[in-house]
Amino acid sequence: MIKELTVNLGERSYPIYIGQGLLEEVGAYFEKHGISKASPLLIVTDSHVAERYLQPVTDRLKEAGFQPVSHTVQAGEKSKALSVLEEVVTTCLEAGLDRKSTVVALGGGVIGDLAGFVAASYMRGVRFIQIPTTILAHDSSVGGKVAVNHPLAKNIIGAFHQPEFVLYDTSTLLSLPDREVRAGLSEMIKHGLIWDAEFTTWCEDNADRLTGLDPEALQYGLYKGCGVKAAVVSQDERENDLRAILNLGHTIGHALEAVAGYGELLHGEAIAIGMVGAAMLSVQLGNPEEIHTVTERIFRKFGLPVRIPAHYDTDAIMTAMMHDKKFKEGQMVYIVPTEIGKVEINKNVSAALVRDVVERLKQED
Ligand SMILES: NC(=O)c1ccc[n+]([C@@H]2O[C@H](COP(=O)([O-])OP(=O)(O)OC[C@H]3O[C@@H](n4cnc5c(N)ncnc54)[C@H](O)[C@@H]3O)[C@@H](O)[C@H]2O)c1
Ligand SMILES: O=C(O)C(=O)C[C@@H](O)[C@H](O)[C@H](O)COP(=O)(O)O
Ligand SMILES: [Zn+2]
């Protein structure tokens, strides 16, 4: 069964289609959304995804009369870089993409963010389609944040550029390595922790089904997670306020990714540690101890890391954190859980308190 959600953004509203086997019908979805057959379209993908899914997607699109060309980057976070963006743009030019062309992201969040930024910047913006193939990408394919990394800061060169639609074929998830499955589920749990206590409990109770890729559990979890993301983005597309809650765990998490060297800790792993840190911070601010114990228990149940490797340098983490895009006009901003399923945007957290949490995350077990 196909589930459908809408991201409500006025004239830029778009659907998210979730179901098994949707890639078989990829040509029909492109036709339905009026994608040009007269201009070439570019599929951006990575080396792992290309092995399994590039040829079938290309074949289906050609059969339907489209003109697909492709660019395959090396799998992994290091491909979210300006140098790689330039290479993809070279392919756009060599293949003759014009302003009626579409850029298609076929892959996980790295590909979605990279291809999306190509779409946002090539000829000052062309159409974009998200075809997510990881669990984590239920988050990254929705909402229009696209970016590449700088060695000093995550996602610091980017734009907001919404896709035409999101085509989520859940059968692709069956080939994901176990570590990627667990890292992807970290963002699903985040969607529960920020918005929906009942969904958080459901995730915890269904940890084995989710990590075991049970199709029914997966489709439900992805639908709920995408639903939270769509609801938040629909209310605050450009993160003027509410959207910042989607950043739970990311202030510490992004700093860890940059300090470790992109790719050592997966994004979902880094933010799992960050969410445990946010829960510790919450308790320090006077909220119930249960917020920390429950949060940590859930991430442990999913086999995700909950501590910062001891050799990571605290000063370097604190410096990297200062590049967080939520920090403005000299004011630090942290997303702090106030109960399970609710968070606040807190502008009164001192650097000393955060440093203390980072130290505790490095020591306690
Ligand atoms: N834009 C956003 O709103 C947003 C939200 C969350 C995360 N992100 C970004 O997403 C990135 C992480 O995304 P990710 O975890 O999907 O990483 P990823 O894109 O690197 O994919 C993870 C790994 O799985 C492989 N893979 C992908 N699909 C596969 C499949 N179906 N079968 C087998 N292997 C497959 C990839 O080749 C890669 O090795 C980070 O850069 C993060 O910053 C962005
Ligand atoms: O969509 C958002 O907004 C998010 O914060 C979702 C995050 O999971 C995601 O990692 C996002 O890329 C982080 O955004 P950033 O603005 O902190 O780079
Ligand atoms: Zn994230």
TrEMBL record:
SUPFAM superfamilies referenced in this protein's UniProt entry, alphabetically: Dehydroquinate synthase-like (SSF56796)
Residue span, 3-dehydroquinate synthase N-terminal domain: 72-182
Cofactor(s) required for function per UniProt: Co(2+); Zn(2+); NAD(+)
Principal localisation: cytoplasm
Record's cofactor remark: Binds 1 divalent metal cation per subunit. Can use either Co(2+) or Zn(2+).
Binding site for Zn(2+): 187, 250, 267
A molecular function GO annotation: 3-dehydroquinate synthase activity
InterPro entries, A to Z: Dehydroquinate_synthase (IPR050071), DHQ_synth_AroB (IPR016037), DHQ_synth_fam (IPR030963), DHQS/DOIS_N (IPR030960), DHQS_C (IPR056179)
Keywords linked to the UniProt accession: Amino-acid biosynthesis, Aromatic amino acid biosynthesis, Cobalt, Cytoplasm, Lyase, Metal-binding, NAD, Nucleotide-binding, Zinc
HAMAP family: DHQ_synthase
Similarity comment text for this entry: Belongs to the sugar phosphate cyclases superfamily. Dehydroquinate synthase family.
Function according to Swiss-Prot or TrEMBL: Catalyzes the conversion of 3-deoxy-D-arabino-heptulosonate 7-phosphate (DAHP) to dehydroquinate (DHQ).
UniProt protein name: 3-dehydroquinate synthase
Organism: Paenibacillus filicis
